C-alpha cells in the first residue's frame, strides 16, 4: 500500500475512533446540543478529507480558548455541570485536532483527547452502549496507533504491506481487552468515594411521565413504549403470567379544568413510611430502573408500608430516605439513577379515616361545562349510594366512549372528550369519572400509576406503556375504592410484538451489564474468589450440612477436563495466530547438515557454516568440497530463491558420508 | 578487542531499556488520572477503562519484546567515510522467525549520529536499511555495539536492545581548504592514462618489470623476456604529469595534526584532479606517487590512521 492510501486509511480509522468516543458521550444525553452539532460537522468535514485548520494554528486555538472560557464560565455560574463542561471542551479539542494537519502526531492528539472523552462518558453514563463505544474506540485507536508507528518518524512514499501489521495489532487489541476484563474482575474495589456523581438515565431518558401534574389534551405516546421501568419480586409469588393489578404511584386531588395536581404536605424524611395496618400484606421487593426517571415510590394497590430503600447513583447502593406527602405520594428524598425498596400492600385496604374537611374538598366539583353536570345527572338519575353512582358512571363511560391515543389540544379537554370526539385515553376517562362523581357529591380523586405486570423469570416487570390513570372514590364504610372507566383494551401497554421482544432482549442484556459491570462490587469479587477456592475438607460449615448438600472437596473430573480442553484451545489459537511464518524449507536442510557435521566432529564451537567451509578449504580437508557445496546451496536456497529439490538435498547430505 | 571494563559494563547493563515517548508520557498521566478517578468515585466503567489502559501498557512490553528478539543484524560498512560528512551506513536485518515492525537501528557509540528505519521485516527475507551517519573526527572508529529499538505496537514506549557487533570504520580526514601545492618531485611525464603503474609513458626508460595481468603487450621488451624466460615490460617516465610526494609527520600536537591531515587530504584531491601522481610519507609509512581513485583512498586511509599507530 502506498503512502497516500496508508494515510487515508489511518485518518479514517482515527476519525472512527474519535466518533466512537464522541458517541459514548453523546449517548449519555448530557452533552450540550451545540457541542454535539459542532463535532458532527467537524467529523463530516474530516471524513471528506478537508483540513480547514491546517496552517491556521493561532486563529483556531484562539477560537478554542474562547469556547473554553464560555464553557467554564457557564460551569462557574452553575448553568452547566463541571464534568459536562470539561467533556464538552474535550469534544471541541478533538474536533479541532481532527481538522488540523494530518500528521501521526496529530493522530495521537486526537486519540488522547478521545480517551478523555471516554473517561468523561464513564462518569456521565452507565448504559450498555458505553461498552460498545469502548470496544470500537479501543479497536480503532489501537489500529491507528499501530499504523502510525510503522509509518515511522518520516513518511516515505514507498510500498508497505499493512496486513501483517493490522493482523498483529488486532490480536494485540483482543488480548488487551481480555486483560482489561481480567483487571476489572480481579482488581479490588476499594473506593474512597469522595467524588461519586450520579449517572444519568441515558440517551433515551426517563419515560414514565410520573410528574407532579396530569395535564389533559396531549396524546398517549407512552402506551406504545416497551421499556421496562420497574421490576418486582412478590411474596407470596402469584402464578399468573400477567398480573392484572394496579400499581399506585400518586394521587391527584385538584382539577382546574385542564390539569390535575396534588395537595399533599411533605413530612420530614424518614427511612420507613407506615400508611396502615400491615396485616396479611403482599411483600414486594421493587427495583425502579433508570427508565423510570421519577422519585415517586410505586406499590401494588393499596400500599400500607414502604420499607428500607437504597439509591443507586454510581453503582454503590446508598441508604435512601423517604418523604411522605400525606394523601398524595411517598417519594425519595434524594435524586438517584435507580432505586430498590420494599413495599407491603393490602388489596382490601381503604385507607385511614379521612377528615370531613378533606372529604368535602374532594367532593367539590370544579367549574366545568354545564353539559358535564347534565350528563352526570342523566346517567345517575336520583341514585345517591356512592358505590352505585360510581358503578353507573364507570359503566356508561366504558360503553359509550371510545379509547384512543390520538388526541389534539382542545380549549376544554373534558367537554371535547365527552361531547365532541367521544374518544380519549386513560387520563380523560379518569378525569371524566372523577369530575362526574364530584358533581354528584361523591369524593373522588385521580390516581397515577401502572396497570398490569408481566412475569419474566422470577420477577414481574412493568413497562412504561403500562402507565395508567384511574379513580378512587370514597365509599362510606369501605374507604377509598378503585373505579376504572377506561375500557379493558386501553389499560395495559400496547407495544408491537416484535418491538417488545427486541426490547426484552435488550433489557436483559442491559440488566446483565448493570449487574455484572456497572454495579460490580467488592462483594461480587469476594463471591467470585470464593467460587474459585475449594472449601477445606472437614470445615465446620460443611459438617453442619446434610451429606447430600455438602459441597464436595474433590475437584470435579469435568472441571479438570474442561480446564485441559480450554488450555488446549487457547494454546492452539495462540499457535495459530502467533505462527506468523512457517519455517523456511531450507531450515530443515540446515538442521540436518549441522547434525551430520557435528557427528563428524568437524565444527568448532560457535563456528558457522561459512567459516567452517573456509577453514576446511584452507586445510585441504577431504570433505572441503562437499561442505562448501552444501553451504553454497543452503545459502542459495535460503536467501536467493533457488530451492533445493529433495533429490539434491539427499545427495548433498550423502556426500558427507 | 574489548577491554575487561567494557565486558563488565556489558554484563551489568540491563538487557532492555525502556523510554517513554512524548505521547506515552501523556498516556501515562491520563492512566494515572483515570485510576485516581476510579478510586475516587468507585465508578466501575472507569475501572474498565483503567483495566484496558493498563493492558495496553503490558501488551506494549510483550509485543515490543517479540519484535526486537530473534533479529540478526549485519553492518555493511563503506571503505571509509569523511569526517563530519554524512555517509551511508547500511544494515542487513534478518528475522529468524515471526515478524518485526517499526525498528530503529543506531550505533551505541554516541559520537555517531544518525539511524536507520525499517518498517517491516518478515522471516527469511533480509532487509537492508540505510542510515545517514556522521562521524565527528578522523581516525579508526571502533564500532562495538548496536542499538535495536522499536516503538511497536502503539508508539507509547521505545524499547531498546543493545547487541555486540564489532567492526572498524576508517574515518578519513575532513575535506576542506587546500593551500598551494609543494614542489613537484621530478619533471613532467607523459604516457598512458588509466594504468595504475604509471611507468608507461614515452620518456626515458626507468626499468623493466614483469608484465602484469591485462597490461598492454606492446610494452614487452622481447629480447630481455626471451633471455630470462618471462614477459618483461619496459617502464618509461611519463612526461604529461608531475609527481608529488606529500610529507606529514605524526609528532604534531592534536589539533595541528588534524589540520595537517585535512590539508594533505585536500591537496591530494586537488593534485589528483589536476592529473598528477601523488605519493605520501606519513608517520613512517610511504606510498609511492600514483594516481587513480584507489590510490586516493589509500592515501586517505593512511592519513586517517596517522597518530593512531598503536591501534592501526
Q: Overall 3D geometry of chain A?
A: elongated
Overall 3D shape of chain B: elongated
Q: Mean pLDDT score of chain A, rounded? A: 82
The helix/strand order of chain B is: HEHHEEEEEEEEEHEEHEEH
DSSP strand count of chain B: 14
Whole-angstrom Rg of chain B: 29 Å
User: Alpha-carbon distance between the termini of chain A?
Assistant: 50 Å
Strand content of chain A: 5-15%
**Low-pLDDT segments of chain B:** 187-196
Helix content of chain A: 40-55%
Task: Report the C-alpha radius of gyration of chain A, rounded.
Answer: 37 Å
Characterize the structure shown.
The complex is a heterodimer of chains A (657) and B (312). With 657 residues, chain A is an alpha+beta fold. Chain A is 47% helix and 15% strand. Chain A is built from 20 helices and 20 strands. Chain A has helices at residues 3-26, 33-47, 57-77, 82-98, 104-124, 129-151, 163-186, 356-362, 370-380, 386-400, 413-420, 426-439, 497-518, 522-532, 540-543, 557-578, 585-599, 609-618, 624-639, 646-654, and strands at residues 213-215, 228-235, 246-252, 254-255, 259-261, 273-274, 282-288, 299-300, 303-312, 317-320, 322-325, 329-332, 338-345, 402-403, 423-424, 444-451, 454-456, 459-463, 467-475, 479-483. In chain A, the strands form five sheets. In chain A, strands 2, 6, 7, 9, 10, 13, 17 and 18 form an eight-stranded antiparallel beta sheet that branches. The longest helix of chain A is centred in the first third of the chain and has 24 residues, at 3-26. Chain A is elongated and about 135 Å long. The relative contact order of chain A is 0.08. By secondary structure, chain B is of the alpha+beta class. In chain B, the strands form four sheets. In chain B, strands 1, 3, 5, 6, 8 and 9 form a six-stranded mixed beta sheet that branches. Chain B has a three-stranded antiparallel beta sheet with strand order 2-4-7, with no helix packed on it. Chain B has a three-stranded mixed beta sheet with strand order 12-13-14, covered by helices on one side. In chain B, strand 5 and strand 6 form a beta hairpin. The model of chain B is unreliable at 187-196 (pLDDT under 50). Classes of the chains: A alpha+beta (657), B alpha+beta (312). Chains A and B meet through helix 5, helix 6 and helix 7 of A and helix 2, helix 3, strand 5 and strand 6 of B.
